[in-house]
Amino acid sequence: MMKIGIGNLIVLVFALSCVGTDFITDPPDEMTSMEVTGDSRTGMFVQKPGSSYNVRGTATLEKQGNGNLMLNFGSDFSSSNGPGLAVFLSTTSGRNSGSLNLGNLQRNSGNQDYSVSGNVELGDFDWVIIHCVPFNITFGFAELK
Amino acid sequence: MKKCIVYFCLLFLFLSSANQVGAGAWTQKRGKGFYKLSFRLIRADQFYEPTGNKIDIPTLSDYTTTFYGEYGLTARLTLVANVPMFKRVTLNKQVGSNSGFVFFEGDSKSGVADSEVGVRLGLLPGGSSVLSAEILFGLPIGDDSQTNGLLTGDGEFNQLIKAQFGHSFYPKPLYFSGEFGFNNRTKGYSDEWHYAAEIGYTFSNKFLVSFKLRGVESRKNGNDTVVGGMGGLFANNQSYLSYGPEVSYIINETFGISAGIESATRAENVLSAPAFSFGVFVRR
Fold this sequence. Notes:
The structure holds 2 protein chains of 2 kinds. By secondary structure, chain A is mainly beta. Chain A has a single domain, classed as Superoxide dismutase, copper/zinc binding domain (Immunoglobulin-like, Sandwich), CATH 2.60.40.200. Chain A contains 1 helix and 10 strands; from the N terminus they run αββββββββββ. Chain B has 1 helix and 16 strands. Chain B has one domain (2-283): monomeric porin ompg (Porin, Beta Barrel), CATH 2.40.160. Classes of the chains: A mainly beta, B mainly beta.
């Protein structure tokens, strides 16, 4: 009888605990492609104002010999840890629907490279952001100059 | 009169044990036990950041069904077990309200969670005041590797040592208990100070109303790169002070039911939402 009771309880918990949906306000998406002279753009990561999380170091977006872009974090790079951290190229200092996901953050410090696939130009995105995807929190960003 | 005193003592034992990981200094008699099956629900859309700032997050829900038991091995030594035998954590899907763009697909994790087993030793048992020492071992049987931080465990073997004090104000149907402890954590997690206090009053020999305070202070001496999930029970460097009432209804000398609510304040690395709990307990 106890077994049946516990079983029913577990079924009830499952029934009550389906994954729901949150509708969030869309962050601004400013798609403006700018003319860039040279083969690379660089920025320094800064902490998002008011945030508890910190990202530091250099980000460099560079055009390769084959015309593709590569994003590099310098040896001075470091980031707070968190679940589901990913690297984005974005038109703003936050993630929006037009942001380009370059994949999970490889590690929390040190030199690392991210290849940019698709038809992306050096001037398409002005920001590199480190974003906690599951909890929708931007840890830090670098503005590319 | 004797029956009345025995019943009153039982009420104290019920109440002192009812709050699971809360304050409870009394030991069980040899061969006797207290067992509780409880369900706890937290649904939060805000989170206390490491600095204590409160921020909005997607809705995270935590549903935990826990077995708690105490069994008297001897008159002074009680076996204690706290087993969250089924935990389900969900994180909502996130969709742009205008664009319809899916920012996150949503995720969930279910299973047994990290458990605690240990013993409570009555140093000064009996009388109106009791003093006990307790050691609990954290068994890492939950999952500490879920990609999106929906963890049911921390993957580390911790040891929580506590000193506990209890006082009965008999013949007034009132008691107080408190405890202070140190949680030694491993694998880069910060150690913690634990403390709790609880006061309870019995109405009409049937309704036990208690109010409890419970606090955790991280020593922040661990590895900063250890996160341990986000918002759930297993985050690293958590600190908080929680408080709330619990009401128990004593059906008879063997069975009872309880309901409680608990909120956190002055918190770091924890969810910002009340926790609701319901339980059925047995003493035999």
